[in-house]
Amino acid sequence: MKNIQLFLLSLSFFIFACKKGETPITVDPVIPPSSYSFSDLKVNGTYSGFTYYGLNSIPIIKITFSTPINLSSASGNITLNDANGTAIAFTPTLENNDNTVVITPTSLQPITKYILTVNTGLLSKAGNKLQSAISVNLITAVDDTDKFPRITDDELLTLVQKQTFKYFWDFGHPTSGLARERNTSGNTVTSGGSGFGIMALVTGISRNFISRADGLARIQKMVSFLKTAERFHGAYPHWLDGNTGKVIPFSTKDNGGDLVETSYLMAGLITARQYFNGADAAETTLRNDINNIYNGVEWSWYRKDNSNTLYWHWSPNYNWDMNLPIKGWNECLVTYVMAASSPTYSIPKTVYDNGWAQNGAMKNGNTYYGVQLPLGTANGGPLFFAHYSFMGINPTGLTDAYANYETQTKAHTLINYNYCKANPLGFYGYGENVWGLTASDIKNGYTASAPGNDVGVIAPTAAISSIAYTPAESLQALKYFYYKLGNKTWGEYGFYDAFSLQDQWFATSTLAIDQGPIVVMIENYRSKLIWNLFMSAPEVKAGMKNLGFSSPNL
């Protein structure tokens, strides 16, 4: 286009400069400087665009051009840097009649991104410049060596439980004893995560990680704090100040009662009450305190003007403005179970049928990745739907008018597993060893990952906490996370929250609501301890039967 413009400009000058009878003035044409072009790229003998995943530590990069290259101009015009801009040494050579530059890096680090750049200053032997710069992304593979010594699968499960248990024991809030929201939360404690933590504490006592006396003392501390903490018609807020017991708003209008978080806390307390069944004064007092807390939750008031559904939030400043009805299918089944089981503020079956089950509208029945899903959203949604309620509720053989819950939890997990194996979005690393989409931290944020919201981030809690449903698939993932990725995924409180092999990102965070299910669901797989305790509560048996549930465990 530029040459045409120059020609037209020259032509117009020629036309307007000539007068009748005069000799035309000739102008030499403008000749643009010569350049040469890129013609081919191969990394380890393969072309796949300008981004390459799963590379070995010394990949061979061959870039071919339309003309022989002057290798002496490579310095400064061919660069290899990591994502932080640090220069990486490499050796350039020529082949293919000097048309191909061969780049051989020194040994690269695993699971790391490198950027190879060729600038236009790279000269041909004729002294011409490259027409356009080239940039190639090189991402190295996982180092397949074991990061920790091999132990038996049983020993590994115990190790994972014990290390993750430390989040609730070592890192429990010093004043309240409750679980902090995450490892950077300071005084912010979480009501729902504390319910999971109480179940983890009971597991820790049973596994001899701590003594019964020490576990009892910690739960006494928690219960003592909860007796004086802020409540809203009996319901606790999502977050509390671990020193004062005052509400910490989860959002502007979410500064009052959170019925779902409260139900997780109550499920944990009821589990502890069933475990501490001794006749001595300390355990008797603990049971009475737990009963008073549970009986003080005004579940029926959260029907919002006696409607046929439960509502998630109520605020003393904003009333029902959050306006979020608790409808299935999601993580909130236990909320309806705890409400129906209440001796003081119970809900009738009509609230369960109309509010939660939406008179059957929560049914699915479609098949995804070869598995039929009884309930819920397409492809099952995030895996925490299959964890939070079922830390206490045993789905084995559990049925009601809407589903078989053993089928539901297994189907949901297998769909998640099969989706990650199929990997329709092509995220690097996904497969039978690396699977599990659920709510977790992501790079610069947080999201509820699921087949319909897949951002390339795997959360170890997703696969590990599903071990009761898919033992072989979950154990395979757990072993890969520990043995192969453990130098990046394993820390002081067990597995970090999430990682992305696609983006070479590894979280350094741990969250109560993700650590708790790991400890508890492994235990349910191994011994059914928490399932048996929760399902043994007389109120739970009566409440679930009133909702129409049938189970060998009721």
From TrEMBL:
Pfam families: Big_5, Glycoamylase. It comes from the Bacteria. InterPro entries: Cu-Rt/internalin_Ig-like (IPR014755), Glycoamylase-like_cons_dom (IPR019282), SbsA_Ig (IPR032812). Residues 60-134 form the SbsA Ig-like domain. Residues 1-17 form the signal peptide. Residues 324-537 form the Glycoamylase-like domain. Keywords: Signal. This is Beta-glucosidase. It comes from Pedobacter yonginense.
